[in-house]
Amino acid sequence: MSEVFPIQGSQTIELIGRAGMLDRIWSDLRGPRPKLSLVGPAYIGKSVILKALEKRALESGEYGAVLYWDFTIAPESKTAFYQEFCKRLGQAMKVSPAVSAFADYLDEPEYTALEDLFAEMKEEGHELLFIWDSFDRPLAEANLPAQLFGELREILNGQHQLITATRAPLREIARDKEVQGSPFWNLFGDQVPLRVGCFDEKDIEAAVAKSGLSLGSGAQKELSNWTGGHPVLLLSMLNGLHGTSTEVDNKAVVRAANRLCEQQADRLKMLWHDTTLSISARDGFHFLAENEPVDENQIGREDRDALIARGFASRDRTKLHCGCRLLRTHVQNAAPDAGTVSRLFGNEPSYHANIRDLLELRLSHFKVVDPSLFRLVKQAIGDIPDYAKHCLNNLTHVEDEALDLIWKHEFGPTRKIPQEIICFWTSPPCSQNKQIAAMMAGGNIVVPADRPKQLGLLQVLTGCTMHVDSKANYVSKDTYVLLNAIHQFRNRSEHTDGQSIDVGVAVSALLMCIELLGCLSREL
Question: Cross-referenced Gene3D superfamilies, in alphabetical order (predicted)?
Fold first, then answer.
């Protein structure tokens, strides 16, 4: 049966519905508002909307040049960013008669003084539109320095227009603390991101009209109930119904849905195991499927919002219902043997597919003693298994945050080592320890700024060296051992020498991070 709607794997997926969303974006771009950010879960259609925006902007002729940049493969350095940026911008400008003369300034890849060039173009009435898709990757991989974002703010501030698309708000994605606090984000003002969710009724009507199908009474409502309005599922259903010569009634929709559950099991599995849908949200869906309707406060706000955004749940006043019968059927059919160890981890592909759930579940066992530290580890877990190389980029920040938290509890805000500990360390047999002797000889009574030296201090403080008893008030030897191991993994991720990082190795590092949080939860 031929497909009316290409869904994935195509470079030219047509925008279906979304007229209201596209009009709003277009209006906001041309108004006095700050830069725009588009936020929505994976597979919800953000890229399709942005490609349609690019087409509309080019056809309007209102912009000197339009640069669409998909960051799925992100630049790995500031230099690489500017090289790629200048290359892409030059190509976009050369095909535009209005600004083609300016493109020559971008031929040299080392050219980074863009501020004057952009200002001159603005003065001559040539506005540029930058569309940055999948901007999660450069923020999550933490390869781009805060300095770059500061420079981009100077380049774009008050000039030209920018819209980004990510799976979560921009500040929440940034892993580097300096990037997270960059004034670059001030470009977006205090506006709430534009949320992209499932198809609404008008979008569904537009999709049905495009399909050429004739729906009987109640059939469109049945489509909504089975798909939740999720674009991937709804368009798959319409593809399955294509070719029906008679009017499509409720029963025909149900038959198509049952076929889809069998034929598109991999696609349903893909949506169910999307890395941005946490295990707690999936647990919430199980609870909802077994007990609907439920009071909305019986499922956590973050999980509830994630399910509603995907159409997996729907809200009716204060009650939640299953919004997607296709997913409920898929999950219920997979439930009987989904929890067995052999099925989850019986071979390498299964291990890769399911290990993230195990890591998330283990992380959920511990209370949050420091939200920033927990967020760093949670972000890293989200990169397993597809981005094993990048999930270790957080280790430096995990180590830094953990050490700062430890010294705050052990020695207070001044980080001054108490006199009773110094007296103990300067008396035999502790004074014979080379590490202690070196510290005391220099009169070091404050925690050093150097992180490796801090690890050495923690080793002594927790009694993880010969002939020295622990003098820590809170943290244990386990905390030191885990932090020291994380430090070694951090060195591995920073000095790869071209060697790839195996998923199992990355998982080992993340397990240590999770257990470190467990220690800190118990001890602090």
Answer: P-loop containing nucleotide triphosphate hydrolases
